[in-house]
Amino acid sequence: MSGIKYDIIADETIQYKGRTLYRIKALKSFADVSKGDKGGYIEHMGNLSQLGDCWIYDEAKVFANASIFNNAIVEENAEICGQAIIFKDARIGKDAKIYGYATIGDVAHIKQDGDMFTRSNYFTVSNITDHGYNITFYLGKNDILVNASCCNNVEELPKHVFCGTINEFEQYISDITRAEVRQPLEDLIKIARLQIRVE
User: Fold this and answer.
1) What is the mean pLDDT of residues 45-53?
2) Is 1 domain-assigned?
3) Which one of 37, 64, 96, 150 counts the least CB within 10 Å of its CB?
4) What is the pTM of this model?
5) Would 167 be classed as within a structural domain?
6) What pLDDT score was predicted for residue 174?
7) Residue by residue, what is the 3-state secondary structure of the chain?
8) Structure confidence at residue 116 as a pLDDT band (50, 70, 90)
9) Do 78 and 163 fall into the same domain?
10) What domain range includes position 24?
11) In a domain, 24, yes or no
């Protein structure tokens, strides 16, 4: 249980766009969030990672298959939905709406009254863990393909560069024993399968 940083509040819900969203509550202190603090709203636990310092503040809403992880922040009245991915140190606020297949990372700050919608057959994530993972998922002829490299040493992995299918990559990382390394990579595999459609 020590790795669980938040939970949903089952009796604090709102109905929004035909979905039930739950307010979240911090179970421990991290970054500028204190144990017991209430946050914004999610539809399910897959919307907000338990790892890193990512958090949803205020009346912000994250739902559908959208994912927030690393140290990303969603605040104020922002809305993240669809297959959108917010990661690293990105900060989304005000009345911004991020949806579709948008991928926002690094130190991007989006605080505007506008929409962002993108769709693609690939996405790239840099420095997804403290070990400097750089990963690109993209659509091949009949499968999702993965190119991954690791800048720093990860003792459990036999090599630092990977090229292959998404299923092979899933097997490749299965031997990683440290959850803080393995879990973000497993989360990305799930996102890639949602975002990249194989005909």
Assistant:
1) 93
2) no
3) 37
4) 0.61
5) yes
6) 85
7) CCCCCEEEEEEEEEEECCEEEEEEEECCCECCECCCCEEEEECCHHHECCCCCCEECCCCEECCCCEECCCCEECCCCEECCCCEECCCCEEECCCEEEECCEECCCCEEECCCEEEECCCEEEEECCCCCCEEEEEEECCCCEEEEEEECCCCCCCCCCEEEEEHHHHHHHHCCCCCHHHHHHHHHHHHHHHHHCCCC
8) very low
9) no
10) 6-118
11) yes
